[in-house]
Write a structure and sequence with these properties.
2 domains; elongated; 5 helices; single chain; mainly alpha; about 130 residues
């Protein structure tokens, strides 16, 4: 990509922005250091286009999971899962403990022959 401005032009614009700031905002910039401050940094990707390790967005993960369920889950279940998928896509390290605990707990259940299956929407009973 071709650079549109010279380093001198960028520095002049940065200095002009700094000088027009309120004293409170200047203190923030001074704390992080004028040299470290980048008023031109690109914004983060919107959540809608962030993907997980498999390349899926939070919305795609939810749809794939919901299609795998035997019945439509209740709204609280869907809301909780939606929030979790956003965290998963945004920062997998934040949800890693939950994922690892889920794997560990599922192994303990299997050792004892216990299976947690979702309830069906019509009867409210666990499918056999």
């Amino acid at each position: 990509m071709e650079q549109m401005y010279t380093p001198e032009q960028v520095e002049a614009q940065k200095r002009a922005m700094y000088e027009r700031m309120s004293p409170r905002r200047r203190r923030f910039v001074d704390r992080i250091g004028y040299e470290s401050w980048d008023p031109f940094q690109a914004p983060f990707d919107p959540i809608d286009i962030r993907t997980d390790a498999l390349g899926y967005t939070a919305h795609e993960l939810l749809n794939k999971y919901f299609k795998s369920l035997p019945a439509i889950p209740d709204p609280d279940y869907m809301q909780t899962l939606s929030e979790f998928m956003i965290l998963l896509v945004m920062n997998v390290e934040k949800v890693r403990p939950i994922l690892e605990f889920g794997d560990w707990y599922n192994e303990r259940l299997k050792e004892r022959g216990i299976s947690i299956k979702p309830k069906t929407a019509s009867t409210g009973k666990t499918p056999e």
